[in-house]
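Today's session is about reading a structure prediction critically. Students often jump straight to the picture, but the first step is always the sequence itself: look for stretches that repeat, for charged clusters, for runs of hydrophobic residues. Only then move on to the predicted structure, which in these notes is written as discrete structure tokens rather than atom positions. Here is the chain we will use throughout the hour.
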Amino acid sequence: MTVNSPQPLQGRSALITGASSGIGAATAELLAARGATVALLARRKDRLDELTGRITAAGGTALPVPVDVTDTVALGAAVSRAAAEFGGVDLVVNNAGIMLPAPIEQQRADQWQTQIDLNVTAAVHTVGAVTPLLVAAAAAGRTADLFTTSSIAAQNIFPTFAVYSATKAFITHLSRHLRAELGGRDIRVSAIEPGIVGTELQGHVTDQGALDWLAGAAASVEFLTPQDVAEVIAFAAALPKRVNLQQVTIMPTRQAA
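Below is the predicted structure for this chain, in token form.
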């Protein structure tokens, strides 16, 4: 298959975390539409069942795997289940995450920990769980991809977003190192860094100042859609396996930084 084929991902087996909404759900639908089988990992079983129904109705193949990715044991079991069902995994979208900005002086230690647990710890354990599968796929001559959803916040400065931004800087730096470690084994590693995307992420924000900032941004900037980010991931996954887009920044046209 070529990147211009209607189904350039035919024969690929994908695993997506955070698949119940937003970027994860949009990526799952698009990868399935382009020929990949997709394992859907997230906490909300009802959402996964709905997504599976849409993918199946469109002619795709999806496996819903309800799991809390912050539970390391359950995560490992979910990855093993997907690999057993599909005969391996060669395309991973490490996407689960949360954004909870607030001024540091508010001492929201609960929100700090939630972001670290999901955006950092769970992301690292996902990498650990899928890497043997990607190594095996690459050794068998298949294209092997590891995408992790970072953010423009990994690069730029946003007051009150310090902990969230730090978790995303961790992800981007982790991806750079993983590429150096795994690229020699023919595994492509990519950090995807979107600007503002219209997703549920904003719905979890509790700080009024951050909510006001987001509302002001929405009044002047047309946010990216989850489908926009999914298109970039699907495009990168369909490139010849000698080509690795190691870090992709995707910005709304009107968002300056």
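Discussion point for the tutorial: The mean pLDDT is 95.
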